[in-house]
Amino acid sequence: MNLLGADPLFVNGIDGTVVLIVLIKTVVTFAVLMVSVLFMVWFERKIVADMQNRFGPNRAGPFGLLQTLADGIKLFFKEDLLPDQADRRVFRLAPYLSAVPAFLAFAIVPIGGTVELFGRETYLQLADPPVGILFLLAMSAIAVYGVMLAGWSSGSKYPLLGSVRASAQMVSYEAALGLSVAAVVLVTGALETSTIVQHQLGGIGQWHFIRLGLIPFAIFAIAATAELNRPPFDLVEAEQELVGGFHTEYSSIRFALFYLAEFMNTVTMSAIIVTLFLGGPNGIEIGFIGEQSPVWFVLKIFVFLFIYVWLRATLPRFRYDQLMDLGWKGLIPVSLFWLLVLAGMLRDYKWGFGVFGGGLICAAILGRAIQVGRENYEDDTTPRTTLREVR
């Protein structure tokens, strides 16, 4: 029974009513996520158009709201190509390995408090397993397989190179993301997302982005942006190479699944950030809006979605060496250092300050080593003028 989580729906066991409620919650969650993806595509195109002094989508439906639906229907009826050299089974499976984990990760997100259905009380959350955070990290790791297998199974060198580059990027930032999540688990002592949300009750001062010192929140936000392949980390598509990266050989509905997975992951990761660091559905009681309400949850997600669009319209793309340096030489050491500081603070403040001081010394040594390495590299690559050239 513990595998079913802490949802009060399962307190008295499983019967037909419980199964019906779970099915209803599954359908509603899937529908809400799909509608949010449609809205996100329209929202991004409209905001970027406004920032660039353009109209954006304005033909299909009022304010162009149905443009995303029209594009999806068009992709359904396009020709579905299958390369001759492709591994057919893996080629067909890869898009689902990218799209399905995004939905499963959203399933553990608490959207609000409790609600009563058919005389049974249940969380506004599809599932609350006792290993919710581990489940989140597992789904994030499985998405890497979709990218890698898509490039490998295409039977072409360009998608393969694109998938290797994308996988290296996602795996690199997965480490920093996991360490920032470990900081949340360390403070709350729980892996259930509902418990993490309850741990942040009591006002903004109790939210983890303040209690953990802002650094885990900043690292998670940057690592999540890189893992989502959002600008300025969108090196996966590789437009400068005139190919589409790992999904170059895909068309029709299979390409649409990759496109769907990207925007679904954006919505899901925004929800995860809100859950871990910004109190989830927690807020203040104003009129008909309670202290725990889906309204607060939606407003917080909307802020992050706008920030993602803002970054897309503002920042240029990183070079690949800059991308990897930021992950391995920046985010991972800082997240590990801050995790040790938090562990020391939980034991004793003297331990925390001691770890902080030692970490600063190590950071100075590491920074000096990186600087010396760069200087030596520049000396080795600087062209030297020979006597014959002078003559």
Key traits:
two-stranded antiparallel ribbon, 2 domains, about 0% strand, single chain, about 65% helix, mainly alpha, globular, about 400 residues
Number of helices: 13
Rg over CA atoms: 24 Å
State the share of residues found in helices, binned by percent: 55-70%
The tally of structural domains comes to 2
Strand order of the largest sheet: 1-2
Shape, principal axes of CA atoms: globular
Oligomer: single chain
Instruction: Note the beta-strand portion.
Output: under 5%
Mean of all residue-level pLDDT scores: 84
Low-confidence stretches: none
Q: How many DSSP E strands?
A: 2
Could you characterize the architecture of this molecule?
This protein has two domains: 339 residues, no CATH class; 34 residues. The protein has 391 residues and is mainly α. The chain is globular. The mean pLDDT is 84. It starts with 15 loop residues before the first helix and ends with a helix. Helix content is 65%, strand content 2%. The chain has 13 helices and two strands. Strands 1-2 form a two-stranded antiparallel sheet.
Write a brief structural summary.
By secondary structure, the protein is mostly helical. Helices cover 65% and strands 2% of the residues.
Summarize the topology.
Blueprint: H1 16-51, H2 67-76, H3 88-106, E1 114-117, E2 120-123, H4 132-153, H5 157-188, H6 193-198, H7 208-211, H8 215-227, H9 252-277, H10 294-314, H11 320-347, H12 349-381, H13 387-390
Antiparallel strand pairs: 1-2
Helix pairs in contact: 1-9, 1-10, 2-9, 3-4, 3-9, 4-5, 5-8, 5-11, 8-9, 8-11, 9-10, 11-12
